[in-house]
Design goal:
By secondary structure, this protein is α/β, with parallel strands linked by helices. It has one domain (4-136): Collagenase (Catalytic Domain), CATH 3.40.390. It is built from 3 helices and 7 strands. It has helices at 13-27, 76-94, 120-136, and strands at 4-7, 36-42, 50-54, 58-64, 98-100, 104-106, 109-110. A 4-stranded mixed sheet has the order 1-2-4-3, covered by helices on one side. Strand 1 (4-7), helix 1 (13-27) and strand 2 (36-42) form a beta-alpha-beta unit. Helix 1 (13-27) packs parallel to helix 2 and helix 2 crosses helix 3. It is globular and about 45 Å long. The two termini are 28 Å apart. 30% of the residues are buried.
């Protein structure tokens, strides 16, 4: 299994760990033994619900506990949907589809000048996040929102 760690305080940590494992299975990255995913839960991420950075060996996901728009506390399920989105980016980095070396490159092509909503890596993450959340989240386990 691809090693991962969850740092910071989050409700339902065991449910979250199972969710991460199931996300890795859905994304086909669960067998990367020499790669690593670090998930950090923080109060806020500037202007975002979450963020993922990485390379072909390592991905770091930062999840916000507060909404970047109005500062309200995010519910657990909102955070988990964001985690699904950011795990798509982790897959993109670990598989070498997305590079960030002084600017983004997508599948070997420089990707400068895209508006956020037109970035191909974001299009993929938004397209997959809902299905990933529904398929991978252990809805049958008890959790608090």
């Amino acid at each position: 299994m691809t090693p991962f760690v969850i740092q910071g305080q989050i409700k339902n940590k065991q449910v979250t760990q199972l969710f991460v494992y199931q996300l890795m299975q859905e994304l086909g990255i669960q067998k990367f033994r020499k790669k690593y995913i670090d998930i950090k839960v923080v109060t806020k991420v500037d202007g975002a619900y979450g963020l993922c950075e990485g390379d072909t060996d390592y991905a770091e996901i930062t999840l916000a506990k507060t909404c970047p728009i109005d500062g309200r506390k995010l519910g657990y399920l909102e955070m988990m949907k964001t985690l699904a989105h950011e795990m798509v980016h982790a897959k993109q980095f670990l598989r070498g589809e997305l590079y960030c070396d002084g600017g983004f490159a997508w599948r070997g092509r420089k990707s400068e000048g895209y508006k956020y909503e037109n970035q191909p890596w974001e299009k993929e993450a938004y397209k997959k996040e809902g299905k990933l959340f529904m398929d991978a989240f252990p809805h049958s386990l008890p959790f608090t929102n």
